[in-house]
Amino acid sequence: MPPDTTPAIRQTDRDAARANRPEQTRSIEGLTDAFRSHGYIAERSLATTVYLALELGRPLLLEGEAGVGKTELAKVLAKSLGARLIRLQCYEGLDVNTAVYEWNYPRQMLEIRLLEARGEIEKATAHDIFSTDFLLKRPLLQALEADDGVPPVLLIDEIDRADEEFEAYLLEILSDFQVTVPEIGTIKAAQAPRVILTSNRTREVHDALKRRCLYHWIDYPTAAKEFEIVTTRVPDAPASLARDVVGFVHRLRAADLTKVPGVAETLDWAAALLSLGAVELEPDMVDETLGVVLKYEEDIRAVRGGAARRYLAEAAAQR
Fold first, then answer.
1. For the chain, domain boundaries
2. Cβ proximity of 311 and 244 under 8 Å
3. 11-100+138-217: CATH class
4. Which of 124, 148, 188, 260 sits most deeply, having the most CB atoms within 10 A of its CB?
């Protein structure tokens, strides 16, 4: 097993990084409050992990089911830090040209034509067309070259969807916050970005990448916490409606479904029901709006009708 080559963070670097953050984010309690002010309810363990990632200058890998708030955490962290969010959405086949950099070939060809027209083509060198002027900077390079005084938050979203080859390519960036462009050389970040990686665990992320990160698993929230999330994010929803929605969704998560709803679907459903003027959850309303919370036809068919009424009764009994 190769050793972890992540460089140690000097105390002076930690102090500088802390001083460069808003005062509210320099403690776990302050970070929790900052998240809450932006509508994100984080338990102590998650806030502690995020705080340590900021203090140590380490990337943070968040895993969990889809819709539990992993991507939203990166967005809220950027807002809390007053930083720019740079997002790289991963997918199968993602390569360096899309994620890091690409040469602007049309502009290079135009430059060659101009050199020919001026009679300078014989004196031209590779540097004349392979320089930063012709470089198209993709999200990873943008994050490394950010120089606005506030390190950006780099969100590498759904890393489990990318190929293992691309995952291996990330090791240089996450170890030393630098990237090598063969025609130019090594580009190193003047200020390391704050990095959040997310994974829905459709495949295992390699150990070499995990060792470079702090780790936190975000689970589905408890009913009490999800009720707080709904009342925070959909503040106009009556408490009775929020309780009914949360209770029903928690019952759905215990059912044998193709895909159980996440917190994102809970919020969408509460907002949709509110727009329909609902004050509490009624059986007919459930049947009419299941497509907001469930995304597979077989799941909707299994829940609609008798099962929905039974789930409503069970959820009411548990309150």
1. 11-100+138-217, 223-311
2. no
3. alpha beta
4. 260
